[in-house]
Amino acid sequence: MAPPPVSSPFDSSVLNLVRYKCSCGSLKPICRLYFCRHCLDIRCGFCVSHEVDSHYCPNCMENMPSAEARLKKNRCANCFDCPHCSHTLSTRATSMATPSPDDPTKMVAKKVYYLACAFCRWTSRDIGLPDQTVASGGWPEQDNCSSERISALQEHYRAIAQREKIEKESRRFLGRKLSYLQLSDKYGLTTVVNRKRAGLPPLSLGPGREELGRPVEISPAEATDLDLEQDLPIELLTEPLNLCSVTQLPQRLAQLEVQPDTITTIFPRHKHLMIKRSQRCRRCEHNLSKPEYNPTSIKFKIQLAAYYHVPDIVIYRIGELVPGKVAQLVIKVTNPTNTGTTLEFLSLTKLRE
Predict the structure, then answer these.
(1) What pLDDT sits at residue 209?
(2) How buried is 274 (Cβ within 10 angstroms: 0-12 exposed, 13-18 middle, 19+ buried)?
């Protein structure tokens, strides 16, 4: 007789056997709860505010400021994912015979680099990407035909949001008598006076800042007649379809701006950045979890997890369950602190009351 399978303690079926009630009323396992030492209460993921501390690449472990990560669209510039299986691509080196610059009649070995996947054996040569002379990169990327339109729309709606913010601020001070300090802070008079006293020239507005909140003029979108669009190629109906040469749905969704149809048109994708985040109690604004800034470190500066302060309850043994008979149940309680803990069992009727 084969031994019974041993379930992992990290399975959801094991974790949800014993759930703790959070201060907000939700039931969570103890490994997903925090204990606020200032409020003396249990907090879950819905009772804390999440703050991004740093961005980093999970492959090269390079830290990146938030402004730079936003500019690069939260992707690493040096690491790539395989477009076929989504694993990390590695850079391979090889030698190629090229004519010598001094003597064209002689052939010399030149070191070149290409991208390769160690899992599915996909390489950048499969789609015709030229090899690079440096290992750092410079790989060609696909151009998005709608990038200019998307940038114009972003500028347009950013200007609208700025104008609405200015109108909201003006309505807030409407009908109120403002002091000199409030007016100077609102209109920047303090900065102007200080620069004048120091003998510095006044600050000049940059291009596009003369009229703050003015919407950017963009051309409206034009509707397309579907009858004039190009139909599907006739080869789909007359020739047998090779499924190995057609991209799958996850491969197309990974490159939404292009959505390639065939395997020969998929390009390597820059690897997504990951974040380290700190969690703060919403009631007292104290940190409950704060990791170290170094991306290679797994330690925490502050980690107020619930299993460091709240007793851990485990269903140790359950007797045979027979209808109409009393069954024996063994519960194991572990107190992680040095202070005493009072344990009380309530009946279902008393618990509902």
Answers:
(1) 44
(2) middle
- Residue 79 CA to residue 88 CA, distance in Å, equals 8
- Which has the closest alpha carbon to 136: 54, 60, 56? 60
**Measuring CA to CA, how many Å separate 271 from each of 62, 75, 149?**
12, 5, 25
**pLDDT above 50: residue 206:** no
Our CA dihedral for 124, 130, 132, 133, rounded to 10 degrees, sits at: 140
Q: Are 58 and 69 in contact (CB under 8 A)?
A: no
CB atoms within 10 A of CB 41: 16
pLDDT of residue 78: 87
pLDDT tens digits for 51-68? Answer: 998 999 999 898 888 889
* 74's tokens: 């939260």
Q: How far apart are CA 9 and CA 175, in angstroms?
A: 63
- Any idea what DSSP says for residue 52? E
- In the prediction, which pLDDT does 140 show? 80
Confidence of residue 207 (pLDDT cuts 50, 70, 90): very low
Could you please report the per-residue DSSP string of 110-165? EEEEEEE-TTT--BGGGGTPPPBSSTT-----PPPTTHHHHHHHHHHHHHHHHHHH
CA atoms within 13 A on the CB side of 113: 13
Using the predicted structure, report yes or no on whether residue 49 has a pLDDT greater than 80: yes
pLDDT tens track for 225-260: 777 777 777 777 788 888 888 888 888 888 888 888
Contacts of 55 (CB under 8 A, 6+ apart): 63, 64, 65, 66, 69, 74, 273, 274, 275
pTM as predicted:
0.69
Place of tokens 């399975």: 11
CA 53, 57, 63, 64 torsion-angle sign = negative
Give the integer Cα–Cα distance in Å for 118 and 80: 13
pLDDT band of 205, cuts 50, 70, 90: very low
Half-sphere exposure of 265 (CA within 13 A, CB side): 13
Provide φ and ψ at 230, rounded to 5°. Answer: -70, 135
